[in-house]
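REQUEST ID: PR-0412
SUBMITTED BY: lab tech R.K.
PRIORITY: routine
TASK: structure prediction, single protein chain
INPUT:
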Amino acid sequence: MDAAERAAWQEADRHLAALLDLDEAERQQAMATLELPVAVRAKLKLLLATTHRDYPLLDQGLLGSSHDERGEPAPRIDSRIDDWHLSALLGHGGMASVYRAERIGQDFSQQAAIKLLQHRLPGPAEQARFRRERQILARLRHPHIAALLDGGVATDGTPYLAMALVEGERIDHYCDQHQLGARQRVQLLLAICDATAHAHRQLVIHRDIKPGNILVDAEGHAMLLDFGIARILDDTDQEATMTRAFTPDYAAPEQRAGRNDLGTAVDVYGLGAVLHRLLTGQPPRHDAHGEPIAAALTARQSGQGQPISVLRGDLDAIVQRALASDPAQRYASVDALATDLQHWLHFRPVSARKRNPWRRALKLMRRNPMSTSLAVTSLLLALAGGLLVLRAHRQLEQRAQELQQVVDFQTRMLERIDASQLGRRLRRDITATLAKPALLEPEQLASWQAKTDFTGIAAGLIDQALLTPSLATARQDFARQPVVEAALLQTLASSYRHLFQFDAAHPVQAEATALFLDTLGSQDRRSLASLREQVALAEQRVAPDMQQQAERSLALHRQAFGDTDIDSARARLRLGSVLTALAPERAEHALQQALVQLGQHGAAAATDRAEAHAALAIVLAEQSRYAEAEPAFRTAVDEFTATRGAQDADTLELRNMLAWVHGRLGDGARAHAEYQALYPLYLDAFGEYDPRTLNLLNNIAAWPRRQQDWQAAAEPLRKAWQGMTRSLGRDYPTTVRVAINLAEVELGLGDPAKARHLLEAAFTQRDNGDLHSAMPGVQRLLGKVALAEGKPRQAADWLTRAWHAAGDESQTALQQKIAAELAATYRGLPGHAADAARWQARASVPSDSHDE
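STATUS: complete
OUTPUT:
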């Protein structure tokens, strides 16, 4: 990102802070009166478009209290809050108490930290608004933010939030106990900066960032706690008497002054205050004018903290700017603070200090000691004689070319890694070895083969024997050659991604992209190719900021190469693919544009055009435009077959999607036959336990499941669920959806206990955004399970919840079916004729789900 682009984002972020606390009408009016450059206005609209603000609790006081007469929290240990058992008090303050809690189901237990708000919600309207606030917090999905697991309002009106229980130490205690140096402390804080910036993009401000709200686990992973609690409790009503929740030592001056117009600058201050504590051992101190005292001076006077020589200069300037008493003088955003900290880590000039050519030269020498040494040597050689310099230059050039050849060779080798192929070979060779001396009976051998994930074993071997050692070598041996290191890391990240090890790929990919951008800049094709790979990985991981990443990538491509360049078209293709589930109409427009642009590049873009046609077909299918999607899929299959071959993995996946569209068009028998024809090809291409093969098994079971041929559907679904649980995890969205399908089959086979076990596990994922639309079906099936177990009242409760949830998800057809089932259930309950008639009426005419 160049200086102009960065300045535009910072200016947009400054205006964002002022717009955060306005309702929609006020926000539109304020936007109309702002005189902004086109680039800044576009970025501000993009930031505002990430969410629709609805924070009504911010505009009302919270009534009632759960304190006893002494003002202490009422004891809740060994009590229950909904499904949670409170076992120990972890801490309490004026706004809330935090308990260790556990939720136990049929075959699972879940630990959490339950925060009980000390002020109750007086009525149904306030409770409903609290639930909407909880949905806002549930969107904060980030590896360094303690996730929201659950929440609600207890029967006594006490609102609560269940957060992921983080076992760790306060960040300052952790750093001191492990005697971390300044660089390690800054790296820990950078993870929290990333988490805070993610929340700001969701229009959520923390407002109480302090060491006690940042825990570091035994593996050195930092987590930010209590995100959004201050926003839920905060009050903009001028007549309210409620005290804001913040810690004075780490609160910004405008917070301590009681101002209501707080923006993202308070979190910049909080991060600066935590950084001050980590570097000096003390919270920030201020002079008589309210300005922060330099960190180096604080450390010298207290005799604690990092060495003065480390603090003096850039770090001092960064801390001073973050802690400025005037919010306008602080960093414009958390990202800007993080950028300066990254620059300090890599010996680059920081924006907090005035530019000095000698200081820049010194940083250049520290950042590139080898290059600096060579430059000095070259200068001395030049003085001694030009011939020796020329010879040295040629030797370095030759060495660079040889090194690049090694990188290219390793890239080609790693690209050819195929875990599925290696897994098939392992299966064949091991089976042959076991079969020859008849070590196992044929039935035992077949059972062992079915239960063994050879592809997973192969992927593990590849990781342990090749990728992990290569990763360590790349980081250690090429640390002073960042372009070479970036190229090797990019290859390794791509290898992890192709092995479906997305969590392993993420940090490596982020490191590679950052190195490319830092060393080559955003105008270099290698940097932007790595950025496209980062977007592709974000899409596969369903990262919460994948849209922002894709839009940033396209903007940088257009700025560097123009709109019609082939790489710009590829970046637009990636954006269209990312937008498929988020904004289908925008995705369709972007993909159509990409196809036009790619069409201008002939054979060089043949593979990209095939991918664009495939993405467009998926977008049409996502919008239920199956008649249009069917020919688009056929075109994509033909293009993939021509460019990649009939046995290519993506070609097979497109044939799978084409079969799915045939099913959606009402030709389930044709789709079923196509799925069955694909299965042996999937086994050969991917192996038995690859997620793609397992997903195909789920598709194979779809037709018999719809025909209620439970026996035919059971075997493929059981195998799919067992395999996905092993390879993707029980809580992965695809695994959960297969579990729901299997639960329906188990219920059809007369085993409600198995069905309930699967459905209860699925229901624990109700706050997962990728599974919201599946929850009405889960609750409906739980109602059917209760009926099968002879519990009609419990069944009515589940079905009622399912009816409401289907209304929230706008599934009106499903809502009518559930209403009919509720009518039948109440007809079987004595004294409920009126309820049965009411639900029967709703089965005929869809109702508003909120009127019950």
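NOTES: The longest helix spans residues 386-415.
REVIEWED BY: pending
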